[in-house]
Design goal:
It contains five helices and no strands. The chain is mainly alpha-helical.
Length: 118
């Protein structure tokens, strides 16, 4: 997906044009977005691949814990005055435009060219 590239471009532009708190907010938000996506992907895969040797509750709890980790990191950075809150939300939201770009690309290949790009 295009999430890292889009976040990198925003961080590079903000480094030149914005205060350092905006840049760190974009960086932290983008990193938390990537961490959240990776953690969501692995925890959902763990829920659907239930193994009888390991308790499923431990795997399912990771799904909930990720919210507390992301919120805790965001709250700590804001309270320490390391980040701009709107910039951090923009970094956390960087996954959404990347998702729409990827969906548009998949739609183009599947419908217009009659190909599957999996």
């Amino acid at each position: 997906m295009a999430t890292p590239a889009r976040s990198n471009c925003a961080v590079i532009v903000s480094t030149m044009l914005q205060p350092w708190r905006v840049t760190t907010g974009l960086m932290l938000g983008g990193l938390l977005s990537l961490l959240n996506f990776h953690w969501l992907e692995t925890s959902v895969a763990a829920v659907f691949n239930v193994d009888v040797t390991e308790r499923p509750r431990v795997r399912i709890s990771r799904y909930i814990i990720r919210y507390f980790v992301v919120a805790g990191a965001a709250f700590a950075a804001y309270e320490l005055r390391l980040v701009s809150l709107p910039a951090m939300f923009a970094g956390l939201s960087s996954f959404v435009p990347a998702l729409f770009i990827e969906a548009s690309r998949q739609f183009y290949f599947a419908i217009i060219r009659r190909e599957e790009s999996f």
